[in-house]
Amino acid sequence: MKTIIYTCPYVPAEWIAAHGLRPSRIIPDAAGSTGPVVPIEGVCPYVRGFVNEVITGTQASAVVVTTVCDQMRRAFDIVVRKGKLAAFLMNVPSTWQSVAAQKLYLDELKRLGRFLIGLGGESPSTDALVKIMLEYDTARTSILAARGYLTSRRYSEAIARFNRDGKSGITRDITDKKPLTDGIPLLIIGGPLLREDFEILDVVENSGGRIVLDATETGERGMCAKFDRRRLRDDPLMELANAYFGGIQDAFRRPNSELYNWLKREIAARGARGIVFHRYVWCDIWHAELRRLKDCIDLPVLDIDTAGDNETYKHRTENRIRVFLEMLQ
Fold this sequence. Notes:
Blueprint: E1 3-6, H1 13-18, E2 22-25, H2 45-56, E3 62-66, H3 70-82, E4 86-90, H4 99-118, H5 126-145, H6 152-165, E5 184-190, H7 199-206, E6 209-216, H8 229-234, H9 236-245, H10 257-270, E7 274-280, H11 284-296, E8 301-306, H12 311-328
Parallel strand pairs: 1-2, 1-3, 3-4, 5-6, 5-7, 7-8
């Protein structure tokens, strides 16, 4: 079975799987000094890692890139020029309140479908799409039910594993366990995490904290909304578009007020007492949100900026997290 890789949460795995192909939402390693894109000023380390993994990897048949950030859009040009994989650029509108924007996203899904058929995929029947959507919805529900029973890192890695492989397998990890309640409750928010960045979750717990909400792009915030079973039966593709385009909140959206409405609801429900704001150097989208986050959310905020592959940044991050938690005690 051919594998289609991507990293953006607005690419529905169910749509790829319904075409008889294997979707895999990858998380790259921190980019080192080797690869087509070396560490240079102005290049987001996540984008650099993604491009290097796509170009040097040999397991996938195609890659899907979206337009949610300017650097990733530029990455598409590099992948096409230097890579060997078939590549598809999916337009995701930043505006979302108009019918035209919703129609554009739906049309992009249909265009993606034609690309997948060109790779050898099959045009999915309604029944096949419904079946796959229900399977993914059930898996996501089981992962969300495990929240609170796993350490912060294990939970976030379970989400990442599901995004990569399309399987949960999480219930066996929480059998006969009690909810975890130790530590100062925090949330982490920002763009996607590199594989090495998951160490931050360990640092938080080892310093006396507990991540009750992973609102990074690779965490809960990057999961689509639960499907409406009635609408799913009537028009599965439309419900898929609604759950992804309408259900995933992000800083790049205009307006992005729904991101803050979602955050306020989740903070109230989970009792978070502080925010770890994780952003990469040269990520203009999330850098611009720092001031607004402080204005909109009445919680202490720790700003963690990182270049992705520097030991100095790593040690500084560890020390700042410990100091932040000491302040909250």
